[in-house]
Design brief:
Elements lengths: L5 H17 L13 H4 L1 H11 L18 H4 L6 H6 L29 H13 L4 H22 L3 E5 L1 H13 L6 E5 L13 H12 L2 H4 L3
Helix pairs in contact: 1-3, 7-8
Length: 220
């Protein structure tokens, strides 16, 4: 089982959970039971296989019990506009065993907005502006170009302006087994960095001096 993709292992946990839930009994007051992991299985599994196929450092956990979110399409906080247009979820959505006449399931065709879902996914869209696969493809192209520049210029020292640049340079050197090029880091000068607004030049001068780079920049 451990050789299965993470997405499939997660789906196995959910299926076991659904089987246990199906055995529960409720009082006569509870007539309608909606389990989107059953009737919206196709769209839910599409979501899981697309966006949960690797380990995650962060888990957002919340309830979305309204009738126009996950209940419609099987996607957590599943506002239809974001499910269709941003997450690009595909699949068929069926009906629960017993459907309330005022809470009908329309699946991906639901025209009602899910306010909490719209807020949640709009935040994600603004914060995570590139989907994982798009970002991965972009970084791979940039990494390869960086490698070619390093080889062309016969670079011996790389000064990463900010942590991200330092991390990419280090990754490129390791992936190509380049051991005679040194990577150091200096503070990024962006005004968004509060520390950079307090004597950036002096801080960077010390960083370059401490790393030994400054001597190569000073005229002899």
């Amino acid at each position: 089982m451990d050789f299965l993709p993470i997405s499939e292992l997660l789906l196995q946990i959910e299926r076991h959970q659904c089987a246990l839930l199906a055995n529960l009994t409720f009082s006569e007051k509870i007539r309608y039971i909606y389990n989107p992991l059953e009737y919206a299985r196709e769209t839910h599994e599409f979501y899981v296989r697309t966006y949960c196929n690797s380990p995650k450092k962060i888990l957002f956990l919340g309830m979305n019990p309204g009738p126009f979110g996950m209940a419609q399409n099987g996607v957590p906080f599943g506002d239809s506009a974001y499910v269709n247009n941003w997450l690009k979820i595909k699949g068929n959505v069926f009906k629960p065993h017993l459907e309330h006449p005022k809470r009908q399931i329309q699946g991906l065709n639901c025209s009602r907005s899910e306010v909490s879902g719209s807020r949640f996914w709009s935040f994600m869209e603004e914060t995570c502006d590139l989907k994982a696969q798009e970002k991965k493809a972009l970084i791979e192209i940039c990494d390869e170009a960086l490698y070619q520049v390093i080889m062309l210029l016969q670079v011996k020292f790389i000064v990463g302006i900010g942590k991200f640049a330092e991390e990419r340079a280090t990754h490129v050197l390791r992936s190509h087994n380049i051991q005679d090029t040194i990577v150091v880091n200096i503070m990024h000068p962006s005004p968004a960095n509060p520390a950079a607004n307090k004597g950036w030049k002096e801080i960077v001068h010390k960083q370059l001096y401490d790393s030994g780079i400054l001597q190569y920049m000073t005229l002899q």
